[in-house]
Design a protein that fits this description.
Layout lengths: L13 H6 L3 E5 L4 H10 L6 E3 L9 H10 L2 E4 L3 H13 L6 E4 L11 E2 L8 H7 L2 E3 L3 H15 L10 E7 L4 H9 L6 E3 L9 H8 L6 E7 L5 E8 L9 H11 L6 E3 L21 E8 L4 E8 L3 H15 L3
Parallel strand pairs: 1-2, 1-3, 3-4, 4-6, 5-6, 7-9, 11-12
Antiparallel strand pairs: 7-10, 8-9, 10-13, 12-13
Helix pairs in contact: 2-10, 6-8
Length: 325
């Protein structure tokens, strides 16, 4: 068996299994998301984290052997590699480990549960019972959290033309972007995805229950992590012509009792400013409704750490549900 970070009792040994903790293996633990998940798991009681030595992390036989020993595998891989690894796991059958895929590959795939526990009242239960969970993207987490409850409440029609604007720290952009910012080669701020085909759009539309493809304009700033997602609305263009308090009430009702998603009263006293880095190192997400009733305009805003509730924190939340922790 490949060397593990901690002593791992074999699943094949019933007497040892009775006392052992669930074993988690992160396939791709050296990447940004994998490192953040590992950092969180090191503080989490009740599990064992198994790890391959750096020189063996690209050894397919060693990876598959580690998967066989795990109770849950987290895939922190590019899409193509995640699809291949998911096929290995599927070949192990019901005796194989549960899996969380942090890539984009399976977010709309049959047989996978979307890993946003706050999406609907039933979503947490589905994640608990799932063997395969697709972790959400960071941008869709904020956008869906704002839009879906208002669609469900009938305040935003499913065919309404939605625009989503967002800014993220550069850590969400992958190795090349991180290296460019670290080396000082990247601009302080830039829009991207201007071909209007960002890879997060399909899940954003599907889980927001929108029938019209939204316009999504992402951007990145010269800060490592932190995220703001905003959705502007002309209130009188909505069929029910809601007031801001109606939007707030629907969001408050949807997230009542949620541990990691909170509706926060919008404060415009300081010129209507909002610090995008204020939730860094946290797994929380805050939602706000900024509005000007005189002009009948509103902006919905989600604030989160793109590495927290937007990625690694979400994976750990799903892991706790799937392992009954």
């Amino acid at each position: 068996m490949p060397a593990a970070t901690r002593s791992v009792a074999s699943k094949a040994n019933p007497s040892a299994s009775e006392a052992r903790k669930p074993v988690v293996y992160i396939d791709g633990e050296a990447g940004t998301t994998g490192l953040e998940i590992r950092r969180r798991l090191d503080k989490l009681a009740g599990i064992e984290v198994a790890s391959l030595a750096p020189g063996r992390r690209k050894d397919d036989a060693a990876r598959l052997a580690m998967m066989r020993e795990a109770d849950l595998v987290v895939l922190c891989l590019p899409d193509r590699a995640a699809i291949e690894a998911a096929a290995w796991l599927a070949s192990l059958g019901e005796e194989g480990p549960k899996v969380i895929d942090a890539s984009t590959a399976h977010r709309l795939a049959d047989g996978w549960v979307y890993g946003f526990p706050e999406l609907t009242p039933d979503q947490t239960g589905w994640i608990r019972a799932a063997r395969r969970v697709a972790n959400p993207g960071c941008y869709p987490t904020g956008a869906i959290a704002l839009i879906r409850p208002l669609v469900d409440a009938g305040l935003i029609p499913a065919d309404y033309p939605i625009t989503v604007n967002a800014v993220s720290g550069y850590s969400g952009g992958g190795r090349s972007m991180i290296e460019a910012y670290a080396a000082g080669r990247a601009p302080p701020f830039e829009l991207y995805g201007l071909g209007l085909e960002h890879k997060h759009l399909p899940e954003l539309q599907a889980y927001s229950k929108l029938t019209v493809r939204p316009i999504f304009v992402p951007s990145v700033g010269n800060f490592r992590q932190g995220m703001l997602v905003s959705v502007p609305l002309h209130l009188d263009a909505l069929p029910t012509k809601p007031a801001a308090r109606d939007l707030e009430a629907a969001l408050a009702e949807h997230y009542a009792g949620a541990r990691l998603v909170k509706l926060v009263p919008a404060d415009t006293a300081d010129g209507g400013r909002l610090d995008g880095l204020a939730l860094n190192e946290s797994d929380l997400m805050e939602l706000r409704v900024f509005a000007n009733e005189a002009y009948r305009q509103a902006v919905l805003v989600a604030r989160l750490d793109n590495l927290g509730k937007g990625a690694s924190g979400a994976a750990v939340q799903n892991m706790e549900l799937m392992l009954g922790l």
